[in-house]
Specification:
The chain has about 750 residues and is α/β, with parallel strands linked by helices. About 30% of the residues lie in helices and about 15% in strands. The protein binds ligand MGD (2 copies), iron/sulfur cluster and molybdenum atom (MO). One ligand MGD binds next to α17.
């Protein structure tokens, strides 16, 4: 007998609602949920393969514990005993900073990854925190922190209503969008064109997204900040600045004008390889459009001037009056956001409150660069202890971070490592304990992170589609037990973690004059929480205290978990609306247009004007049927064009005497790899492209299908020293490489 169950797809940022077909405890099919208030039936090949991803026979079913050098199946009790002993031994012997924490991308796609890591960080008190953010969007957080005082206040292009979209370094036709949660991004771009709007794409490759555009600018990698600065220059020079209703909220417009004075379209033309007239046209069109949005993603972040480029994206939206207005770029308001406080001066955003031990990288948002993880483990200094134990959750930095070989060695030398991961892969193979979460069908889902980045305000929750298999442990419980083991409370009831958070949050809320529960009794409120489990009660609490919440009875028609459960296809909360000045948390209470750290970094951008490009540079690419490093084990999603080949322009191939399909050695600062050449004019001259997440050929892993066609690890070409200095973000695009023809 088959049945259907609703489940939000966790496989990318688009968060599509799926209707799963379930036979017994197995997911045998997935289609788009037409009644989903947000995705309205959209699905992509990854979502359609949900059953295969979920039911992968290589997923681990029981914990593994290392004994006599080998990882063996163990009970949960044995596993957590080993975690408690391993972590506490290091904390007690060397202090909290000698325990490192690495949080990977899928944490933003799970309830467990949203609710528990903050408690783990606070409980352990370590400064050795590394996440996928510093190989991704940290520049955007830093620019938002500096402009708005809140690193998580990220404006999202109003895709459904804009008249003009300037998209840089993003390929949503393959990625389905990022920092812009929009099911059916391709359909939304087509709709933009159908309503007479225009799409411009800036990308060194003629991507599927670029093919859809009215105009494609094949910029030289790593130079977006120059192009954007020149556009800002043109807006000032040609008197096109019109900040509209933003004007009273802005600080530093004159200083900004002076700061971009040197960046004329003529001055940046050679570096960007974009003609001055084209840059002027981009600026004029942006200013002339009734509404417009500039949107930058991976290709604008993972570059030497990632923070400046991210800042300039917002600066252009501001100078044209498009920030915070419908059709422009707006701040979403998610259902689990904190109760909005009245506008006014706040605490602001600080960078570099501490530094990494070895290379003295400044922290950003409480994190150190993932690029520095290996040296923080393998290098002793006088300043303090190296990292001796590591907690890795949903991360595979051996493939996703620079210089995997060095990190691989460093992980092998740790006193203790625990991985929360469904696979034994390139990273988790070094763990002393592997704690495998259940597959997504057995987990609840709510998009805590992506709802704050969505193009429409909405809220959805899926309970597990399938009950937990015997012997499985919910990932929320795995995290709760891990927190207890790491903080000296091993053996306590895991619900203690949720009770603690609920007690603290409600305790603060009742004392907060702006909270709907001000003056009430925290314990009584805790008793009112609905939900089957600790995490559900926490979600109920967040919804009820949130901007649309019932305020525990104050607004009886407001949101709660009970209300959400009554709407299995979700609740629509309306289009994005203007919100300024409320989201601002700067010290001035204004948008600070030219923050000091940005001003201090501009001379480095000026130097880039003078750099003579020579030699080939490497960039990445994504494929629709892949996702970072962990989906190459699903036969339905591999093969075809989803392959690890080096794209090269025909003229560059000719110059080097390369023929299609030939293996070529690629050499970078961190090492060399060999991949087959794929000659294509979709990549511009002077640029080669290799996808990331491949390199599944290390011994001791258990991903049988991936190992058959392993590909190579592009990040081996990096040595970890190339960073955007403000954010600590790795430079993954525009990296100098040499090619060596192989017979
Ligand atoms: N050269 C280059 N490198 C890049 C990038 C690039 O564009 N170019 N992109 C970067 C970006 S944007 C990112 S986000 C990072 C991603 O890098 P990582 O954060 O390392 O993420 P993944 O490679 O996706 O690996 C995810 C890990 O989580 C595990 N996992 C999957 N599902 C779950 C789950 O439900 N629970 C748990 N606990 N674990 C799970 C997988 O088995 C895998 O081990 O890579 C970065 N690296
Ligand atoms: N299918 C699939 N979907 C995914 C993922 C995946 O691995 N596969 N990963 C997910 C994750 S973790 C993320 S962060 C998002 C990322 O989402 P996107 O940012 O849309 O990612 P990409 O598809 O890598 O697009 C980046 C584009 O930047 C271009 N580029 C490279 N260098 C430069 C440059 O210097 N300037 C400019 N202007 N462009 C440049 C590249 O050619 C590429 O087309 O995708 C998510 N969705
Ligand atoms: S677009 Fe993303 S969320 Fe939607 S079905 Fe595909 S992988 Fe899942
Ligand atoms: Mo990412």
């Amino acid at each position: 007998m088959s049945r259907t169950a609703l489940r939000i797809c966790p496989l990318c940022e688009a968060t599509c609602g799926l209707t799963l077909t379930v036979e017994g405890v197995r997911v045998t099919g997935a289609r788009g949920d037409r009644d989903d208030v947000f995705s309205k039936g959209f699905i992509c090949p990854k979502g359609a393969s949900f059953g295969a991803v979920d039911g992968d026979p290589d997923r681990l079913r029981t914990p593994l514990v290392r004994r006599d050098g080998e990882l063996r199946e163990a009970t949960w009790e044995e596993a957590f005993d080993a975690v408690a002993a391993g972590l506490r031994g290091v904390v007690d012997g060397y202090g909290a900073n000698s325990v490192g924490i690495v949080l990977g991308n899928p944490n933003v796609h799970t309830v467990a990854g949203a609710l528990y890591p903050p408690v783990l960080l606070a409980g352990l008190g370590t400064r050795s925190v590394f996440t996928a953010s510093t190989v991704d969007q940290m520049p955007k957080h830093v620019s938002s922190g500096l402009l708005y005082g809140d690193a998580n206040a990220i404006p999202v292009p109003d895709l459904d209503h804009t008249d003009h979209l300037l998209l840089l370094g993003a390929n949503p036709l393959e990625s389905n969008g990022s920092l812009c949660t929009a099911p059916d991004f391709p359909g939304k771009l087509k709709a933009l064109k159908a309503r007479g709007g225009t799409l411009t794409v800036v990308d060194p490759r003629r991507t599927r997204t670029a093919k859809l555009a009215d105009r494609h600018i094949a910029i030289r990698p790593g130079t977006d900040a120059l192009l954007l600065a020149a556009m800002a220059h043109v807006l000032f020079e040609e008197d096109l600045v019109d900040t509209g209703e933003l004007a009273p909220h802005l600080l530093g417009l004159d200083e900004l004008r002076a700061a971009v004075r040197d960046f004329t379209p003529e001055a940046v033309a050679a570096a960007c390889d974009v003609e001055a007239e084209a840059t002027r046209a981009l600026a004029r069109e942006l200013a002339a459009a009734p509404t417009a949005a500039v949107y930058g993603r991976i290709g604008s972040c993972t570059v030497p001037h990632g923070t400046l480029a991210s800042w300039l994206v917002d600066v252009l939206n501001i100078l044209t009056g498009n920030l915070d207005r419908p059709g422009g770029a707006l701040f979403p308001q998610a259902a689990t956001d904190r109760t909005p406080r009245p506008a006014g001066p706040s605490h602001g955003f600080s960078l570099g409150r501490w530094h990494s031990r070895v290379s003295r990288h400044p922290e950003a948002k409480g994190e150190l660069p993932l690029s520095a993880l290996a040296e923080e483990i393998d290098t002793a200094t006088a300043e303090g202890e190296p990292i001796r134990a590591l907690v890795v959750a949903a991360a595979n930095p051996v493939l996703s971070a620079p210089d995997g070989d060095r990190l691989d060695k460093a992980l092998g030398a740790l006193d203790f490592m625990v991985s929360v991961d469904p696979y034994l892969n390139e990273t988790s193979r070094h763990a002393h304990v592997v704690l495998p979460p259940p597959p997504p069908s057995q987990s609840p889902h709510h998009d805590f992170a992506f709802n704050t980045l969505a193009v429409r305000n909405q809220v959805r929750f899926s309970r597990p589609a399938v009950p937990l298999e015997p012997g499985r442990m919910a990932e929320t419980e795995i995290f709760a037990r891990l927190i207890l083991a790491a903080t000296g409370m091993h053996g306590a009831d895991p619900s203690a973690v949720d009770d603690l958070v609920i007690g603290q949050t409600l305790g603060k809320a009742v004392k907060d004059a702006h909270s709907p529960v001000h003056g009430r009794d925290a314990q009584e409120l805790a008793g009112l929480l609905a939900g089957d489990s600790g995490p559900e009660r926490r979600l109920d609490m967040m919804l009820r205290l949130g901007p649309y919440g019932d305020g525990f009875g104050v607004r009886p028609d407001g949101l709660s978990l009970t209300e959400l459960l009554a709407h299995p296809h979700g609740i629509d909360l309306g289009p994005l609306r203007s919100r300024l000045p409320q989201p601002l948390k700067t010290r001035s209470g204004k948008v600070e247009l030219l923050p000091q750290p940005i001003a201090d970094d501009l001379p480095r951008l000026r130097e880039a004007l003078l750099r003579e490009p020579d030699g080939l540079v490497l960039i990445g690419r994504r494929h629709l049927r892949s996702n970072n490093s962990w989906m190459h084990n699903v036969p339905a999603l591999t093969g075809g064009t989803n392959r690890c080949t080096l794209h090269i322009h025909p003229e560059d191939a000719d110059g080097l005497g390369l023929v299609d399909g030939q293996p070529v050695g690629i050499k970078g600062a961190g090492g060399a790899v060999t991949a087959p050449v794929e000659i294509t004019d979709t990549v511009r001259r002077g640029v080669v492209s290799l996808p990331h997440g491949w390199g599944h050929d290390r011994p001791g892993t258990r991903m049988r299908h991936a190992a058959q066609d392993p590909g190579v690890n592009v990040n081996q070409l990096l040595d970890g020293t190339l960073l955007d200095p403000l954010s600590g973000n790795a430079v993954l695009n525009g990296v100098p490489v040499e090619l060596i023809a192989r017979p």
